[in-house]
Amino acid sequence: MAQGELEKKIELNWLSAFYGGLLTPRQRDVLRMHCEEDLSLQEIADTLTEAGKPVTRQGVYDAIVKAERQLNDYENKLGLIHRYDRMVEEAKRCLAYLETGAAEAARDSLKKMTEL
Prior knowledge:
Elements: H1 3-19, H2 25-36, H3 41-50, H4 57-78, H5 80-99, H6 103-115
């Protein structure tokens, strides 16, 4: 798997972790098989067909693209992953302040976290 493909699957996993509950069960299944199980489009199509839901490779591809678009739209509108990343960075900063004994700076850092 190329580096760009791996990064895209990791990003899709993050998006799915935060917003997957907003997708249809079928979209969640397709993304899980694509990202977590690393199945090919054909393997996903075969799996869904065996489950009684005939689908083509193109149908799987379209489902992945649509789900990805929806997940990105949710992040653009809600920004939960961006907010989470900012909180993690602030928590790391706070820990560093605490390790150096900078209590006032740690307090300020915690205050910033509560405002996020």
